[in-house]
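Much of our argument rests on the idea that a fold can be written as discrete symbols. Part of our work consisted of pairing the sequence of a single chain with a tokenised description of its backbone. The amino acid sequence and the backbone structure tokens for this protein are reproduced below.
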Amino acid sequence: MRTHEREILIYYNPRASAHKKVIALAKGMGVPVRTFTFEQAPSTSTSWQQIIAALDIHPKQLLNKADPYYQEHIRGCDFSEECWIKVIQNNPELIKAPIALRGNKAILCEQATDIYKLQQENAKV
């Protein structure tokens, strides 16, 4: 998934203060920031495949394995990549950290300061 180089797009959980911190840091980077809750995130598997490809991770790595729902219903399952994407589509609240996109780069912001990786990457271009 490609976004414009001049803006940052962030998918996040509005109930998590750490996620709000990522947004605050992004807004301080001097570029426009568009935010969407995980519930507003793309709903198609193709969109999720593009995001996951840009992140260069396995879909399972997006999930909060400590979440009670994950522990009760998903833990121990060995799904195909396509099935993991369906888990994400149907349970976006399980995504463990904000996802930030800028141009053709994507970052899973497990630490709030991870957002700066988009700034550094863009500076190299």
The chain has a mean pLDDT of 90. The two ends are 18 Å apart (CA to CA). The domain at 8-124 is CATH 3.40.30.10 (Glutaredoxin).
